[in-house]
């Protein structure tokens, strides 16, 4: 005769009563086992000693929950998954011969070029032309490029707003699809949610192939909260492209603008490196393999350039090490413009060494930031640099979202990356390094204009901060690894 539910309920209750005295021991064994397991995994897989100490402390001080948080947020699954998907084919060097690679004109920058080449496994390309564009002009240039495209449009962005900027661009992409252009759009999974309803639905109604990078509304299926695709570039007809720090948002094009940014039109062989980066991201997200063959002329200008594709996968730490190398190579001047300046101790120390050897260091950040916590942490970090002789300038509104760096009036780095933990370790970024006196001179002139409008914030300014503000800034800086 089958046993009824009452029987099984009684049996389970009896078993629980029998085991009740032993539950503390069972819980202790589980907690210790999880803590030991996580500690061993952290020690073997984390290169940053601070991260090792932080996670180890968390899993021992917060039993079970600390291990769960580490599993959700601390384990980098992206590197393994990316390698499984691409098989290493997209990141291959395509027969690059080091003997054919050009060299910068300045002797001390030749070492920097070779170092970045070994980091990225990509050649420094010659014959490029870079046109610098402010955000409204860049937006219109991208619209014109979409309207004139005949073969393909590959667009990647972090934020694609469903607003006065995003809707016309989405409609232009839909029109391109209708006339037979191969269009692919990649929007970050978190960035797609900045506008509700998401622009993704408008793109799909327009028959535009669009994917969201690491997207899920279910928390248990979204273990990559910090690993965002922050890249912003577009390649048209595999001949020319655009890249920089500009998202697709109405704040850039409204009058007066709420946000300013620096974007660039890219022409020349380095466009092939933009293509390869987009193809790798698209394949990772959709499984579709795209043609990465550059179709433009071999020589369009005098700029030597290379793409720096950085992220928490196989490209881990490439951008950070490039910045360290560039700072170390500087002999006369370093200029940095960024909305978020919260570098780690190594970058801070390298900038201090540059100051000690007599290099002029100028840093421009917004006077009013859209992320107050980051701004407070920035001021705490900058306090030490200013005390060593760095020049800090606070730019007035509108909010300057540009990300650019120049070294010795000859080397330029521009793109999507900021000077914070997210851009340096947690996000997927794309920047261009460029060698050329004319291009660097153009950017330096733009920076001269911004500095002329900015407020110099010196050591006296820091000393005059109210004590509670100094404490606030110091407490905010304690969160540097997570900002």
TrEMBL record:
<feature type="transmembrane region" description="Helical">
    <location>
        <begin position="22"/>
        <end position="40"/>
    </location>
</feature>
<dbReference type="Pfam" id="PF13396">
    <property type="entry name" value="PLDc_N"/>
</dbReference>
<dbReference type="Pfam" id="PF13091">
    <property type="entry name" value="PLDc_2"/>
</dbReference>
<protein>
    <submittedName>
        <fullName>Cardiolipin synthase</fullName>
        <ecNumber>2.7.8.-</ecNumber>
    </submittedName>
</protein>
<dbReference type="InterPro" id="IPR025202">
    <property type="entry name" value="PLD-like_dom"/>
</dbReference>
<dbReference type="InterPro" id="IPR001736">
    <property type="entry name" value="PLipase_D/transphosphatidylase"/>
</dbReference>
<dbReference type="GO" id="GO:0032049">
    <property type="term" value="P:cardiolipin biosynthetic process"/>
</dbReference>
<keyword id="KW-0812">Transmembrane</keyword>
<dbReference type="GO" id="GO:0005886">
    <property type="term" value="C:plasma membrane"/>
</dbReference>
<keyword id="KW-0472">Membrane</keyword>
<keyword id="KW-1003">Cell membrane</keyword>
<feature type="domain" description="PLD phosphodiesterase">
    <location>
        <begin position="225"/>
        <end position="252"/>
    </location>
</feature>
<dbReference type="GO" id="GO:0008808">
    <property type="term" value="F:cardiolipin synthase activity"/>
</dbReference>
<keyword id="KW-0808">Transferase</keyword>
<feature type="transmembrane region" description="Helical">
    <location>
        <begin position="52"/>
        <end position="73"/>
    </location>
</feature>
<keyword id="KW-1133">Transmembrane helix</keyword>
<dbReference type="InterPro" id="IPR027379">
    <property type="entry name" value="CLS_N"/>
</dbReference>
<feature type="domain" description="PLD phosphodiesterase">
    <location>
        <begin position="401"/>
        <end position="423"/>
    </location>
</feature>
